[in-house]
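Repro case for the chain-ordering regression, as requested:
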Amino acid sequence: MTSSSSGAQARRATILDVAAAAGVSRQTVTRAMNDMPGISAGTRERVQRLAAELGYSPSRFAKGLVQGARTSLGLAIPDLTNPYFPAFASSVVEEATQRGWNVVVDDFGHGSGSGLDAVARLEPQVDALVGYLGAASNDAQTLMGRRPVVVLDYPLGHAAGAISFDYPYAARLALGQLLAAGRRHIAYLDSDHDGAVSTRGLAVAAAAEEAGVELVVLQAAADSAPSAREVVRIKVERQRGVDGLLVFNDLMAAGALKGLHDAGWKVPEDCAVIGMDGIALGELVTPELTTLSLDLRAVGRAAVDLVDNLLSGAVEGRSPDASLVLKHRLVLRQSA
Amino acid sequence: MTSSSSGAQARRATILDVAAAAGVSRQTVTRAMNDMPGISAGTRERVQRLAAELGYSPSRFAKGLVQGARTSLGLAIPDLTNPYFPAFASSVVEEATQRGWNVVVDDFGHGSGSGLDAVARLEPQVDALVGYLGAASNDAQTLMGRRPVVVLDYPLGHAAGAISFDYPYAARLALGQLLAAGRRHIAYLDSDHDGAVSTRGLAVAAAAEEAGVELVVLQAAADSAPSAREVVRIKVERQRGVDGLLVFNDLMAAGALKGLHDAGWKVPEDCAVIGMDGIALGELVTPELTTLSLDLRAVGRAAVDLVDNLLSGAVEGRSPDASLVLKHRLVLRQSA
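-- result from build under test --
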């Protein structure tokens, strides 16, 4: 097999390159490379020849030819049932697949599952790890040894790389919007993080203090829509003056909108609501959710790029270049 | 290492068994088994001793001790951004994890991705495959050879196993509900399945004919909420008489509710809406969505059980026992 690309830095040819060169669909390339029926002998030969020229090997061949040549990326996420996480996972899978990598996804949010369990399951199978690992971030790097771990939404610590979010900036954006709309009695709804205050919560509290706003903090039992709905329905009655509500994430904000509706409040007239994440759900609720939005495609790309750069040595682990900070933008819809 | 469980049929001890026996958390078991800091030497020894007695080996040890002892399940899903699929994936991951299996998730719904690409990527890594593979279902079994493939929502064909849904039953349930509420001008909204009518669509058409209802069929360009919203907003104006709407799935139904609202229609007064799937989203939209609901925990369990039985030989591939049919139930909320 010859290859038109050479050198360690050259991008591996993907199935898309072969499909484009042969002027056929991905499915036809797969059929040709796996000696499957449904295509002509001529097409099969032409695709196989182009694949050889471009240096493309599908995984089942690559496995036999060059053990370990295909990068395997582990992705640890805490809960597939919060739509933020599958949207993030989808973005990482898309970016990684374009590089010809495999992605092994581990959803550890079942019962008492912890991020560390996920890392222990993924570690024997992967070359690098990306994840929302929370307090397990440091231990994850210990388990992975010299292979890079990129943690999301958590300080760099021992991990080789980190992608975090500028919550002080996001909190100021959201509070600024509420204050500009004349809201003065502002509440923040978070979930119970084992008794601790979340990084987002700290940023909101600091921004409120900076703006001279006395912040009411509400806490839901769980990071879920029904839990947010329940706490808002019950507690908002005792907080008659509240006219603006910031919520930890969009899923809980959707629950909060329902809770306010249950209590007979109109949004945004009686109380404006701002969520955080920017998931598609925000456009399906009524009123549509104003939110601090992340570009999830950009987050996935940043995570996969960082892994790539750590693996190639272009970025050194735990160096300033290995710690990226992304910003939210405020998407104005109907709820605030 | 001794084991208190023996025989090929005995359930493998899991991390939960060890945690329960030692009276510690899963995280502590992981720390003990991986010689990590943060626990006492006494706890470490006690956990390791109990793990040995119970025959529990975490993956990183199992890998070294018994190559291939841990079952690896591939899961191919077409789109993580439709909340139905992550909810289904989450259920499969939970069931498989309880058996001590690994799950490799492949989301092939990006751009021109096909189920066959997913199978080609997963095939070298897994002992069995579960997936929403559509037209690639038969080729999937060819690629996997003797290892079982369980296809969802597709006829058995060449696959070892299949889980399908009783759409004629579901369609009769939904139409019955609309007719009982006095609705007479009923439409069905589907997406474009490469020009073909979906199995769900065929079942709805048959149930309508059975009930003597003339069915209006609307078709959205894509299986997405914005696409459903657009087609409903535009087409519903030309279908003034429509007073009941069945929708292909809940995600599209959420878009349809928005489209009716855009057009100034009240739900359910002007038009009742019924979705299909039963995902959590249905409780967050306004009005809350009446839907034909699947118990996704049961679907995940059925899929993993079937794989287990095919792997052990308890069920023979392509036999009547390898083809399961599950039923929806009608969950009444506010939209119909």
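Ordering looks correct now. The domain at 167-293 of chain A is CATH 3.40.50.2300 (Rossmann fold).
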